[in-house]
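Minutes, methods subgroup
Present: GH (chair), OT, SY

1. OT presented the first of two proteins processed in the latest run. Sequence and structure tokens recorded below as shown on screen.
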Amino acid sequence: MEGTVNLLSVSMIAVSLVALGGIFYLARKLSAQNAKLASELDMLRQDFNALCSGAVGVNKRVLRLEQRGRDLQQRQDSMEQQQKPSQRPYGEAIQLVQKGADAARVVEEFGLSRSEADLIVMLHGMREAG
């Protein structure tokens, strides 16, 4: 019976050693996977930080462009308001010609010379098909 107990003890020790070896193998494998995942996570963090930095730069540029557009609009509005009354008929005459008016109507409505009206019609008039 002692032989059986000794054999059983030796078998248990062998099985325990095999199990322990398997546990160490799995622990090493999990440790390697953990290191790989940690490295990938670090790379993703770096990429994310780079994207955030780029987005901040783009946002600043967009804000500057929007402000520049507002500034230009204000300048244009200011220039239009400062325009002398004698200069305004040209803009209105161009709009009228773009709607199809002829030189005679421009002369009649805005008091421009015939040559001025002809020039506006040539530059801004509707082109005839054909």
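2. SY then presented the second protein from the same run.
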Amino acid sequence: MEPLVTVVEGVQIACLTVGAYLFGAIPVGWLVCRVGFGVDIFQHGSGRSGTTNVYRAAGKGAAIIVFCGDLLKGFVPALLARVLVAEFQLVPVMVAVLATVGHNWSVFIGLRGGRGVATSWGSVMALVPAAALVGIPLGLLTVVIGRYVSLASLAGAVGFLIGGIIFYALGFGVDGFGVALIAGFVIFLFSQHLDNLQRLIAGNERRLAPWTDMSGSRDSSDHGSS
């Protein structure tokens, strides 16, 4: 009987999974704030190292860099897994999850991090790219209109799920496994935003500053989504 996994495949899977956590754990937000601005991100706002808190601590330019970096932390490992071990359907999912776990609980900064929004978005974009056609526009539209980053993060996640279901029904680039993967990420992101949801319901979740006033001031941003 042939082994289910060859030695080479086993090494690939081990490197991909461990590498996904370590790559996801690179504290982009902490590094940008500390190295680029001399700011301790943990002393500001929510104390997290994600995009929203970086905006609060260091401004929108830094926040854009961090969002892109955190997105890549999910996208790159998931894409590598999808290409290298496509025959093992669960491995890319494990890699996607571990990249997000690394972002949220980074070994490099004392198991602290963000809420996993950008990193999980990146993972889903790599594994179920068709779903991004709905998720990303919905998330961006929500933040532009409402200026609630937390709501936009969740709306984008739900948009990924809606997109996945639509394209699955159409038989275009999404299978049932992909829909289940997105649903899992949606549940995870909602669990990471329970405090934001409570504030949204109570009407005291802070918004981003009006777009015409966003000259770099961070004080009016919300409690953070990532």
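Chair's summary of item 2: The chain has one domain: 7-213.
Next meeting: continue with the remaining queue.
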